[in-house]
Amino acid sequence: MLLPMPETVVPPTPLPPPPPTPDTFERVATQLGPAGVLGVAWAVLPPLGSIALFRWMNTIGEWLRGHDGQGVSMYIAGFAVLAGAGLLPTYATAVLGGWAFGFAVGFPAAMAGFLAASLIGHVIARFVAMPRVQAMIETRPKWLAVRDALVGGSALKTLGIITLVRLPPNSPFALTNMVLTSVRVPLWTYVLGTLVGMAPRTGAVVYVATQLRDMVATEAAGAAKPRWMIITGSVLAVVVMVVIGSIANKALKRFTQPRAGTTGGRTDGPG
After folding, report:
1. Which residues contact 108 (CB under 8 A, 6 or more apart)?
2. Rounded to 5 degrees, what are φ and ψ at 263?
3. pTM of the predicted structure, to 2 decimals
4. CA geometry: angle at 247 spanning 156 and 255, to 5°?
5. Of 139, 166, 136, 135, nearest in space to 150 by CA
6. β-sheet bridge partners, residue 266
């Protein structure tokens, strides 16, 4: 008598994983919470603040000059608070430094304002944005790759990337503070990269503002200094700033591209 052959049990075909939920604006905004509000504010408020500052530039510049040495201290303090809180863009406050004090005083004063403003922005972003942004990064492989490109290698590489991020003239100061703080770059590289990266464009902006102020002053006094010399110097400064920004963007792209042998944006060793 033949016994029936046992039936072959075919394991069920596993279901494919569900597609990732798309990052809609509403979903990202909900996950970011206060960090999203801060990001929007820091994107919108600086341009509006610059309109007001340029409107009253001459009045504010004369008022600062009228306070002698105290005017420089008040400029640095105002720069630190307003730029650090994301209310004014750095290019407008740098213009004010050149317009009020000239290059010799305005440039170091602007750099001191940058230093203090970056620390204020760091503190604000650390408490408002960092926890939410970190949680979002951990669930998104592409975001992780960007984070790892920034902080996953050596300290020197991180310093180089921060410097390149700060170099272009269109780099948003407040938003960059939030991003760098949220991915937990070391504070010393954050500060040093900010100062080194922002020095060239700050110097160019302060120089242009000084040239324009001299043009107005010489015309008002009937002086004979040729206008074309001032205009040419200002144009060259702007061109240099744009060229430096373009070079920085290209270098940054090469710096953050995954190399052969990387997985998910993580390098095999220090960069």
Report:
1. none
2. -135, 125
3. 0.69
4. 35
5. 166
6. 263
Structure tokens at 232: 């040419």
Residue 132 CB coordination number (10 Å): 17
Calpha distance 231→107 (Å, rounded): 20
H-type alpha helices, the chain:
25-32, 34-55, 57-65, 68-84, 90-128, 130-138, 141-151, 155-166, 173-182, 187-221, 227-256
Q: Alpha carbon 148 to chain centroid distance?
A: 18
What amino acid occupies position 125?
A: A
Euclidean distance between CA atoms 165 and 75, whole angstroms: 26
Q: Is the dihedral of CA 241, 247, 253, 259 positive or negative?
A: negative
The residue ranking higher by pLDDT, 154 or 65, is 65
Most confident range, picked from 13-22, 39-48, 181-190, 232-241? 181-190
Provide Rg for the chain, Cα atoms.
25
Tens-digit pLDDT profile for residues 10-23: 666 665 655 555 54
Amino acid occupying residue 62 = E
pLDDT of residue 104: 93
- Tokens 């919108």 belong to which residue? 44
Mean pLDDT of 85-101: 90
Query: In whole angstroms, how far apart are CA 65 and each of 50, 61, 82, 105?
Result: 20, 6, 19, 11
